[in-house]
Amino acid sequence: MSHFATLSRRLLVIGAAVGLGLTLLPAAPAAAATPRIPGSFFGMHNGDTGSYPTAPVGAVRLWDSGVSWREIETAPGHYDFTRVDARVNAARAHGAAVLLVLGQTPQFHSTKPGTPGWYGPGAASMPTETSWKNYVYAVVKHFKGRGVDYQVWNEANVPGYWHGTAQQMATLTRLASTIVNRNDSSAKVVSPAMAVRLPSQRSWLRVFYAQKTGGKKVATYLDVVSLNLYPLASQKPEASMTLLAATRSILRAAGVQKPIWNTEINYGLLAGGNARTVSSQTQAAYVGRTYLLNAASDVRRVYWYSWNLQALANTSLTSADGVTLTGAGTAYTVVRSWLLGSRINSCPRDRHGTYTCTMTYSGGVKRVYWNPSRPTSVRAVTSARAAVNLLGSQRVLRGGERIAVSASPVMVRSAR
Question: What are the residue ranges spanned by the domains of the chain?
Fold first, then answer.
């Protein structure tokens, strides 16, 4: 089965909710004394090709790239790293950090080989512990010293990817973490990714983080918590921050205090794989708002899904060649230039629905404005010097003049 067909079937589950039962909240402000935003914050997936966009990529998550366990261990004890080596080498050549997703059990290692899964029979089932340990050890040994971090599993709370229990996934997490830490202490261990758009998915996440394994809470074995913050198909980037707030409450109640990575994000996902379409201007606005809101909410890394999948979701960063930037891809490079090296202080929403993200940098202050619901205007601070839109177009400002604000973020640079 092709990866695209697999992904389309996945949407039958994660796109099947009518509503979330949540109130849209403003993005949570980042903690005081926030660190400068690094290049690795700007992550992407590259799907099933080796192309790279004409844009800086700070981190790559290898998933749906022909590099699952089933595609590496092609026969018991025989590991073929040809494809994953090419993916890792390409990412490192482009200066990107690498996150390799482990898992999808080969049928010959499955404890329930007839269990259905989107990657084939047995793929979503519990492997034998010995085979899992041998596989993780082989991968970590192969990539030691090459800048690769490891994610335990993909979307463990979506049945097409995992039919086992939360306790079994906790066991796999402990075993993988122990092997990684003993054999490549520089590598991070990232939790199984969790979709959170549905109440049932958040309930599964709650159960997972309540598990103990090896006498310790499962979060003890993790460096990073992974969330896939897709909202419902009709919703906007601000709604994914509502999901983040709800999930953070669950994690806080479980005593989990780990950095959060948004390991998959895009918009318009519908059952069957035909995304809800939006205009090119809206796509660009979604990209800009996504990276701004995640940065302001202290999410440490964001992986766009993906730069070259053209039909899964509604916002594509490249054209069909996987290289040439779309308007949304240009917006990615522009918002990256706003955020990179800055400290984002807050991103509140006023009573009219206008967001103001404030960040400091070596040259002064940047303020980014948008309103996702209606056009409006704001008055620039007296020290304002220039305004820049998501196409990178700049115009000189007079301090105190009014600036038009829309759903597409505009950045105002000022001395203070």
Answer: 3-344, 355-414
